[in-house]
Specification:
Rossmann fold, 2 domains, five-stranded parallel sheet, four-stranded mixed sheet, globular
Length: 369
Amino acid sequence: MFRQIFADLNQLLNQPRPPIILIMGMRQTGKSTLAQNLTKGKKQIRFNFDLLSDRAEFINQDRHSLAAFAEKYHGNLIIIDEVQKEPRAIGLVKHLYDNFRMPFILTGSSEIKMRKGIGDSLTGRLHEVRLYPLTLKEIAVQKQETANYDTHQKNLLAYLIYGSLPQLLNLEPAGHENYLKDYINSVISKDVLEIAGTRKTAQVFLLAKLLALQIGRLVNFNELAVNTEFSRVTVYQYIDIFEQMGLVIKARPMSTNERESIAKATKIYFTDLGVRNALVDDFRPFNQRPDKGQILENAVLVGIKKHADYGQRNEQIGFFRSVHGSEIDIVQKQGLLENLYEVKTAARPGRKQTGKVKLISLDNAQKFI
């Protein structure tokens, strides 16, 4: 499967001394497939830490056992899927990389658990990337379509409703809704609750749904706490878990050159709109939706974030809102460079852009997504 970051990662792997590559992202975004494609034509061995038997080779090992491991798999590129399932393995990966020059590709869907295991142990050895659901370009290539305006516009309308998790390309459209509902049930009832160490499934689902209903709006944490019967602190903790698992992106207020924004506010956007729409149980076509402005804004902000991350650009992406209520939907900054965007579902005839603010509508949104 074509992924835009393949070329950059492949170049890294072909260096005389490649770094350890860590591919993060929400479940079923194609991390394992990307790792597999990167190792085509190379000797490889694969471990899946969902399996206890595969974890066993990486725990309770002394240095003599590790030397035997290195001899056994000499010349192989080692892939470890779901590495967060066994954080203790990170120290062994470091030892094998430093002392036996063994190359590694690690994948994981829980940044929280990976951070606990990695800490500072892989500093200077690690190249991290975040893999997102498919872009419009990746969808067109995978479907073997000509990448032009009409193709992207058709795919954009489907993207806004069903998202772009790779597995959808293998399903008939009639199966998309059930797949996405099963997906959120699995992620929340298993992954989120496992990380949080709680069994409050209904409350966590409700929190996720409430966040999905207010994409692009300022989050009222007190209201979320009251509605879910969580404490305010617990609401913060769960949103952090959603973010670390790649399910949501937080956007915070940013200053512009003209004036200062409000100091404390947060907006939440979903990394995949199919997941978002499954949470609110609404798969109506785009032109029939009351929330189409929110959906388009979500798609554009996530698209900008996605391309910045893929390009390894250290950009700040947020929004502007003054104390008087005036607002700029998306603010994108890199150093002294600044882009300001207003997102509208349709560009009004004769409407002029104000100052530096660029207008994004359904007609030109595809280049950001």
